[in-house]
Design a protein that fits this description.
The complex is a heterodimer of chains A (48) and B (217). Chain A has one domain. Chain A is built from three helices and no strands. The longest helix of chain A is centred in the last third of the chain and has 16 residues. Chain A is globular, with a radius of gyration of 10 Å. Chain B is α+β, with helices and mostly antiparallel strands and 217 residues long. In chain B, helix 3 packs antiparallel against helix 4. The radius of gyration of chain B is 20 Å and the shape is globular. The two termini of chain B are 29 Å apart. Classes of the chains: A mainly alpha (48), B alpha+beta (217).
Chain lengths: 48, 217
């Protein structure tokens, strides 16, 4: 949660930015963190 | 490998949850997990490595479910190059390169395609949406290939004798992949050996061929 709070985005907003927009450096770092968490939790249904 | 090629002595960490492992450089914060790349001793880019492992079909051995190798510019901390392998990829190639670059003529082509089918070609201005397929699960590049690309083509600083370390690591990787391919397609492997003059005795029970890596892009 703190990863998204840091960005000021919801997970859906970050996914949409990843899919249709251009991520900033800070957003790329957040994506890396979320990918690791998603993999460990076996929750990659809507990966970036 | 990193120390004997790029001269970076970065420790790797393995983060475990149940039977899943994430292997990447140590560091509490994302920027601490990147491996600095230098050109002429100036820090110009960062390498991000993340390898995700889980148990294989037999539940006995670890297998790589996913690997992300990304090179970031230090100017804006966004990617220059990405090589990603996702075993469970459904639409894009299982292993692919993505290049974050610009090329007017390519964007022109993609813009025309976008006008016809915007679902297939979503972002014509962004060439990083193109996934360049590279060999699938078995014949994909290894980390050593990326390191050689960085040193040979991008001029990244390196230590002496880096080639020997790269070639040794690549040899180890390709032999491992080759052995996996033989296990996947045992009858194919046996046919080749018979043609080479070998006499083979098949096991009482032959493992079914695992053909998925040879059909998917």
């Amino acid at each position: 949660m703190s990863i998204l709070v840091r960005l000021g985005l919801s997970i859906e907003e970050l996914r949409n930015r990843s899919k249709y927009g251009t991520l900033s450096g800070e957003e790329w770092e957040a994506v890396s963190e979320l990918e690791e968490i998603g993999f460990l939790l076996d929750d990659t249904t809507e990966d970036f | 490998m990193l120390a004997s090629t790029l001269g970076t002595d970065k420790q790797m960490a393995s983060v475990q949850l149940n039977d899943r492992y994430a292997v990447r450089p140590v560091g509490d914060e994302p920027h601490q997990q990147k491996i600095p790349l230098y050109v002429g001793q100036e820090h110009v880019a960062d390498l991000l490595l993340a390898i995700y492992l889980t148990l294989d079909r037999s539940g006995t051995y670890l297998k790589t479910a996913r690997a992300d190798f990304r090179v970031f510019s230090t100017l804006d901390r966004t990617p220059l190059l990405r090589m990603e392998y996702h075993a469970g990829m459904r639409v894009d190639p299982v292993c692919h390169w993505q290049v974050h670059a610009e090329r007017g003529a390519f964007t022109h082509l993609l813009s025309m395609a976008n006008a016809i089918d915007a679902r297939r070609v979503r972002r014509p201005h962004d060439l990083s949406t193109i996934h360049l397929p590279v060999g699938g699960e078995r014949f994909r590049p290894c980390l050593e290939d990326l390191i050689e690309l960085l040193i040979q083509d991008c001029g990244v600083d390196h230590v002496p004798d880096w080639e020997a370390a790269v070639q040794e690591g690549r040899h180890r990787w390709r032999l491992r992949q080759f052995r996996s391919a033989v296990r996947d397609l045992q009858e194919e492997a046996a046919d080749v050996l018979r043609l080479e003059g070998w006499t083979l005795v098949p096991p009482a029970e032959l493992s079914p061929a695992y053909e998925t890596p040879y059909r998917r892009w």
